[in-house]
Amino acid sequence: MKRIYDEVIKKHFANDQQILFIAGARQVGKTTVAQNANALTDSFTYLDWDNQNHREIILQGPEAVAQYAHLEYLTEKLPIIAFDEIHKFSLWKEFLKGFYDTYHEKTHTIVTGSAKLDVYKAGGDSLMGRYFLYRIHPLSVAECITTKIIETEIRKPNSIPPTDWKNLLEFGGFPEPFSKQNKSFSLRWQNLRSQQLFREDIIDLTKIQDIARLEILAELLKQQAGSLTSYSQLAKKLRISVDTTSRWIKTLESFYYCFSLHPWTKNITRSLLKEPKIFLWDWSLLSDPGAKMENFVACHLMKATQFWTDQGLGDYKLYFIRDLEKNEVDFLVSKNDQAWFLVEVKASSNGGISKHLYKFQKQTGAPHAFQVVFDLEYVDKDCFSINDPVIVPVRTFLSQLV
Description:
alpha/beta; Rossmann fold; 12 strands
């Protein structure tokens, strides 16, 4: 399956020498994207830390890796070396620094990881200035339509094939269940991925011992996805401290189980200041239709903001808006610390536009305010050409992102 991240790697190596970090959830397609880079070179080397033979080569040091990759050979195109899951090596930063400083003119380097590559502090000298980070996300509406990279944020609208739209909603955006389109396979895949996440990755890479209680926390977060999250209430249910709850949620975020959104407070009268909302990276895990729709849009917006940031188009972040009177808009996207557009998610177009969109667009000064709805068919018009609050089919809106 061709991904937009194949084009990201091609563009990166055409313009930059830095190590290319690919970070993302387990089974989101990092290894496949890294291995697809063999089409860009005459000499491709893949080293997986989880492979015992590959691990022994890495442990011998940069020179051994260079010899294994035949970097002394003359090639028409610069060789590419991919290191998979190397962050599990306690001295991975020191190793990569030494390798880059010695061989960056002789090879391009890819590093992939299923936990956030900036989480583990051990490992020697800083890699600052030696890498660019690209965060890989599940498939989205726009990526189902095209894998072309554009030079601006917003695409022209385009219609997603009906089968892809149905499968994306039902099976999620992780490539394997999306491609299989089979409920039985999807359930078994979800169960296996959960076991690997909690019983392998987190146990191996953290000091958390009470995995059973951590799994209960993950289930509680799934049940309240998109709702305000009270750490104190979760702590009470789990019979652990608030600090432990906070630390465990950060761990789940680090392993791409979930992500947190915080309230936008700039120019908001009597804004909510503390409680975040938490969403899952895999919206197919949710059974409540309303929560699933909101989580679906949240994942698309997070993918867009991180992609635009990683591509160097600006600094983009995703928030929600809620004041002490419980007036709320589901999402706000900022660009360079300024409100850019608001998004309210609805299942139906009945009832007109939320009055909160008008209120908070005025307060934030955001140029655009969208009420995206799931019951309308695709409309072939650029919704970003409109400044007043507008009801937009979700398929139109999401097709213009990433």
